[in-house]
Fold this sequence. Notes:
The protein is an alpha+beta fold and 117 residues long. It has a domain at 7-85. Helices cover 21% and strands 20% of the residues. It has helices spanning 7-18, 30-37, 99-102; strands spanning 42-45, 49-54, 57-62, 71-77. The protein has a 4-stranded antiparallel beta sheet, with no helix packed on it. It is elongated. The two termini are 37 Å apart.
Amino acid sequence: MPHPGSPGTTFFSDFVVTGTVGGADATSTPDEVTALLGDDFVESGDESRRLRGYELVEFARQRVSHEDPWIGLYVMVQAHRLEGGGPPRLPVPARPPSPVSLHPRLPLRLGQQFRQA
């Protein structure tokens, strides 16, 4: 995440507080989003689902049939891309840790299930 006060932090904080990006939110129609954010986007989907991406931002919509209007589902900001992309700072383990390595004090044996009290 960028340092506090950086443009990326300001952008993300504004989205969290307002739920909008450039005035567009999940209730905005596709035409309204285009008018507010421009036509430099990538879109995928089919007649009932649509995902539109503007670099850091994605708008998801759905509709029952091609005759129905699009209904906004969500707007998502790709916060992990705010520093300019590239690999994540923390290395991803090659395989998930075993339950024993997560809880070394629990005496687990193969085939035994852990139950919470």
